[in-house]
């Protein structure tokens, strides 16, 4: 489950440089300068059609190459060809990539290939027959869910292995967008599962930025869902005879989802998390930036944009549109938006930090934040 | 769902640079490019690899420069971009970081500092009265100090930060950043700000293409002589 290089400049003993301990693979460094050019050359000769390699040899050689240098695009491309011809199980490449990332957590080519493999896998799902080894009988939805979870794990580990791992976090976002389709459930799950991680990596700007992405996506999702809700309600009111069972169930489900999001509370929780971390870990710029943006988001909460959206959706029937609007406002009133409370609390928090902190950077960030609050509230 | 999207700003910059210098830039060639780049500007003010991603110095420069070439920089929120990039100059080191809460790196002397001339030009075109006519909106001397004192390898060449080894990439971008920091404006408005002895002064570099301004002029003049190639196959 992990690979690494064992610093060992000379071959002292006449034995294999490969070391396997508790499922971890090590390679003694002295052999790399012989091994890498050898396999590299073999692959190039194959590519130049000067020397044939059969499928098993190709799999072995590319595997070795990529564990030594995962940014060797050609090797990944050979494997793409093997996958497309049906000789290689794409899941093997997910595993190979995962292994490579334990040593090379940033490797751009590994992440790119991973996305290609995932695309292949989800395309397979749209085909009626699924005979991929190891996944017989699993329903497509369940399969995708498992894939998404695994990707979240891989990203999380890679992010832990290199600070502010841009490629890992952008892959994570890509997976949420293209595999998980940014559903409310997955966004909420990710918010809770990354909470611990960011608390353990308070200087990792990418980690906090990811949470901003989750919160923003939730906001956008809630607005969209509510728009659909309002529109559906009006359609149903106008055409009661055409009401479909599924549509009703769909709207109710979306309604239930939206109610369980409770965005203002989520944003307040985010502010709480920030304050707690700022107190515990003085002097981290990332935390203050995150605070800025979370406050920004809670001020422009979906409540205000809902109103605007509800008013825009006119509908054909005057009375039904009013009805839709009233129902919308009723729902909004149930979820109080504590606009006025948020900034006040922030002032108290900042002043407390300024009066008690001893860290120079912390004081500087707090002062800047205070100035920002003043400007922001002045608008 | 393009797999290579996180790297597309680099390609956009390369493509627009080449196309504009060789006079093959047509509207259809970059249809949608400007809008895509603008969508990648995020709440921090900088530009990320894909919409939603963290702002990153390299992608921001490539994105903004491409937009300048396409004459679409107005699609961005220039004020928040200015706020973000000026926040990336490190108050202790004088050099620039690539992203919030990361370490300084010599190469960002160009990717980040290089944004200020672009912004200056864009804001000037809008008639912003507050713009200086002598300095860029970053501490030019502090950046020069960082590059000259911390980024030089005793054996020649330049590098990321003390302790790192030299390479061509860092040599190129440290020098480019140094040139940006030393030269404000051009022509009548040219103002040199050189740290240390006059011999430290480098030739100015073009803020969009990062080659000598005379070379840009010559390339453009040369290719203007030729008609824009058509897409019809030669008979």
Automatic annotation (TrEMBL), chain A:
Instruction: Kindly list the organism's lineage.
Output: Eukaryota, Metazoa, Chordata, Craniata, Vertebrata
Please give the Gene Ontology molecular function terms for this protein.
protein prenyltransferase activity
PANTHER family given in the database record: PROTEIN FARNESYLTRANSFERASE ALPHA SUBUNIT/RAB GERANYLGERANYL TRANSFERASE ALPHA SUBUNIT (PTHR11129), PROTEIN PRENYLTRANSFERASE ALPHA SUBUNIT REPEAT-CONTAINING PROTEIN 1 (PTHR11129:SF3)
Keywords of the record: Prenyltransferase, Repeat, Transferase
Source organism superkingdom: Eukaryota
Similarity annotation: Belongs to the protein prenyltransferase subunit alpha family.
Q: Give the UniProt entry's GO cellular component terms.
A: cytoplasm
Q: Name one Pfam family in it.
A: PPTA
Q: Which organism is it from?
A: Notiomystis cincta
Gene encoding this polypeptide?
A: Ptar1
Query: What is the protein's given name?
Result: PTAR1 protein
Keyword Repeat on entry: yes
Q: Which residues form a coiled coil?
A: none
Q: Which PROSITE patterns match?
A: PFTA
TrEMBL record, chain B:
Show the SUPFAM superfamilies listed in the entry.
Terpenoid cyclases/Protein prenyltransferases
Give one GO molecular function term: protein farnesyltransferase activity
Keywords, A to Z, come to:
Metal-binding, Prenyltransferase, Repeat, Transferase, Zinc
Q: Give the cofactors, semicolon-separated.
A: Zn(2+)
Q: Which residues form the Prenyltransferase alpha-alpha toroid domain?
A: 10-211
Q: Keyword Zinc: yes or no? A: yes
A cellular component term from Gene Ontology for this protein is: protein farnesyltransferase complex
Q: What are the TM regions of this chain, as residue ranges? A: none
Q: Which family does it belong to?
A: Belongs to the protein prenyltransferase subunit beta family.
Q: What is this protein called?
A: FNTB farnesyltransferase
Species this chain originates from: Notiomystis cincta
Gene name, per UniProt, is Fntb
């Amino acid at each position: 489950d992990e690979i690494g290089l064992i610093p060992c400049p000379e071959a002292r003993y006449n034995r294999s440089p490969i070391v396997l301990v508790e499922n971890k693979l090590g390679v003694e460094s002295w052999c790399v300068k012989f091994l890498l050019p050898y396999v590299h050359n073999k692959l190039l000769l194959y590519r130049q059609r000067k020397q044939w390699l059969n499928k098993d040899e190709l799999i072995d050689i590319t595997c070795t190459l990529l564990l030594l240098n995962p940014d060797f695009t050609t090797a990944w491309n050979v494997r793409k060809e093997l996958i497309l011809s049906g000789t290689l199980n794409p899941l093997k490449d997910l595993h190979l990539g995962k292994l490579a990332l334990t040593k090379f957590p940033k490797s751009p080519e590994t992440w790119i290939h991973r996305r290609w493999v995932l695309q292949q896998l989800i395309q397979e799902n749209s085909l009626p027959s699924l005979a991929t080894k190891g996944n017989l009988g699993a329903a497509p939805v369940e399969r995708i869910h498992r894939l998404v979870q695994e990707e979240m794990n891989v990203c999380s580990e890679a992010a832990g292995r290199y600070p502010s791992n841009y490629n890992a976090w952008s892959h994570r976002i890509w997976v949420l967008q293209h595999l998980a389709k940014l559903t409310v459930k997955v966004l909420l799950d990710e918010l809770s599962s990354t909470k611990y991680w960011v608390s353990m990596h308070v200087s990792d700007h990418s980690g906090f930025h990811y949470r901003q992405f989750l919160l923003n996506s939730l906001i956008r999702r809630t607005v969209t869902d509510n728009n659909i809700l309002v529109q559906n309600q009006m359609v149903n009111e106008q055409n009661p005879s055409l009401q479909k069972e599924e549509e009703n169930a769909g709207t109710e489900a979306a309604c239930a989802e939206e109610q369980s999001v409770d965005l203002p509370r989520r944003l307040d929780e985010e502010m709480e998390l920030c304050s707690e971390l700022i107190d515990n870990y003085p002097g981290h710029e990332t935390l203050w930036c995150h605070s800025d943006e979370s406050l920004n988001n809670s001020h422009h909460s979906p409540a205000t944009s809902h109103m605007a959206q509800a008013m825009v959706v006119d509908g054909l029937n005057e009375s039904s549109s009013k009805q839709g609007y009233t129902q919308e406002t009723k729902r909004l009133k149930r979820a109080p938006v504590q606009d006025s409370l948020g900034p006040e609390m922030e002032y108290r928090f900042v002043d407390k930090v300024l009066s008690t902190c001893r860290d120079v950077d912390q004081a500087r960030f707090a002062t800047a934040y205070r100035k920002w609050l003043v400007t922001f509230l002045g608008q | 769902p393009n797999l290579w999207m996180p790297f597309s700003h680099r390609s956009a910059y390369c493509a627009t640079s080449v196309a504009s210098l060789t006079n093959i830039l047509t509207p259809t060639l970059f249809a949608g490019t400007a809008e895509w780049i603008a969508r990648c500007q995020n709440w921090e003010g900088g530009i990320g690899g894909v919409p939603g991603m963290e702002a990153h110095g390299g992608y921001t420069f490539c994105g903004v420069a491409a937009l300048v070439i396409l004459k679409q920089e107005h699609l961005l929120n220039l004020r928040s971009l200015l706020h973000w990039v000026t926040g990336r100059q490190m108050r202790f080191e004088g050099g620039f970081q690539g992203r919030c809460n990361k370490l300084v790196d010599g190469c960002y002397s160009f990717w980040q500092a290089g944004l200020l001339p672009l912004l200056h030009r864009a804001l000037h075109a809008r008639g912003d009265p507050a713009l200086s006519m002598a300095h860029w909106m970053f501490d030019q001397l502090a950046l020069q100090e960082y590059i000259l004192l911390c980024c030089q390898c005793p054996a020649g060449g330049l590098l990321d930060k003390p302790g790192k080894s030299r390479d061509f990439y860092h040599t190129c971008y440290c020098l480019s950043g140094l040139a940006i920091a030393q030269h404000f404006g051009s022509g009548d408005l040219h103002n040199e700000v050189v740290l240390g002895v006059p011999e430290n002064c480098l030739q100015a570099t073009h803020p969009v293409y990062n080659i000598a301004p005379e070379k840009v002029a010559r390339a453009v003049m040369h290719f203007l002589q030729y008609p824009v190639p058509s897409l019809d196959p030669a008979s």
